Amino acid sequence: MPRLGNTRQGGGTSMWLWGVLAIAMALWGSMAAWQRYKPLPEGIGLAHPERRVVEARLLVDETWYDDSGQRHLDQAIFDEVLAMIGQARRLIVMDMFLFNDFAGEAAGNDDFVPLSSRLADALVEQRSRYPDLEAVVITDPLNTLYGGLALEHLERLRKAGIKVVMTDLDRLRASNPLWSGIWHLGLDRLGNNPESGWLPNAMGPGRVTLRSYLALLNFRANHRKTLVVDQGDDWAGLVTSANPHDASSLHDNLALRFEGAAALDLLASERPVAAWAGVTLPGPPSPAPSSEPEGATLRVLTEGAIRDALLQMVRDAVPGDRLDVAVFYLSHRPLIESMIEARRRGVTVRVLLDANREAFGIEKGGIPNRPVAEELEVADVEVRWCVTRGEQCHTKLLLHRAAAGDEASMILGSANYTRRNLDNLNLETSVRLTGPAAQPALADAIDHVERQWHSTPARTTSREYTEADDVGAMAWWRYRLMEASGLSTF
User: Fold this and answer.
1) How far lies 25's CA from each of 19, 35, 219, in Å?
2) Which of 208, 270, 316, 360 could lock 145 by a disulfide, CB 3.0 to 4.6 Å apart?
3) Do 370 and 464 belong together in one domain?
4) Residue 238 and residue 103 share a domain
5) For the segment 138-152, what is each residue's pLDDT rounded down to a tens digit?
6) How far apart (Å, rounded) are the C-alpha atoms in residues 77 and 56?
């Protein structure tokens, strides 16, 4: 009889534990679903109006190698950023994803350009020169390891009267819902303290808390790279793929600088993000769009609107047209499938990819680009690899050239071609420029693509895809699982 009593007691305990587990799983699943599918914040994922192009200029950072293996750099982006800051008198609004000197395993590389300190110096100097100048720097909490580090250059900005906004990433949908479902059940309320770090900082110097790494696993990001400044009575804007991050200073990147109404659209796109931190951005609102802008047109795109514009450009291409892609990460299934379908209907499609072999001194497995490249090769899409030796092919460019007439379009900016970058998960900003192929920025983009594609021994920029680059089905399925689940950094 005592044994029967113990059995009933054990069964009751077991049922209680199963009940607690079921409740916990239901809470986890419900929170994960909410974080993945909750409504987007207002002002996110917009295609701003088509604007007449005013002084649009392509800026290029490119790295290449001569026949002796010597690295050469041609860089223009942050020279222009510093020049734009140097002529501002009333307002500077900058939104940059990576704004630090972390170098990871690549620390000690004397070739790195100190972009973060140069940019901070320029902002502080301009603010001291013009005390009435309002300056706002928006960035991603990754720079402080989610509150686990205090960065000297950001503190200098604050002391100079510059508002530093750490993006409230919890407003965004979950990139990694499996983890975010747990995180938002209470872990997100844990505080962080830059004085309490005890774990090594994998990105650079200093020590951080466990809470920093737990926050990192959400894989959310404000991945934008934008700048808006006043320019006399007008406004100027810049959208780029480049970060003011020292260890990224050797990367290939592109930027578009422009003026006029589109710059005010860019300013408007940053207002919601600043408002999440209680910061109101000054400056005039965007003007009403004209019904039919004349000549070349420019459009500011954010988040999912970038995806829609990319897909439209690929799907609208007709036989004889040319599509060129130059991108750091390519894994977005609808875009890949659209590119393959475009090739089948007679569009020339060329894809230039980073090999995804190295990130700041850390060896990587080539995911996602290597299995995607193999898939494209099988589909008769031309693929070449950027030749890199520590740096990255970090551009995010789609260029369309029409067979009939002399029209061209391009989309460039911060967004890689991945689920995280295009499906309203990260914050992203790109621009679409459309007009005659002879328009200066479009002509420069065409020249850049041709230089990168047609590598020579005297100017080595890329190499052809070979059978040795095949990685097989397992790598393809691994990439698909990582892309679908969000358990990845791309």
Assistant:
1) 10, 15, 22
2) 208
3) yes
4) yes
5) 999 999 999 999 999
6) 14
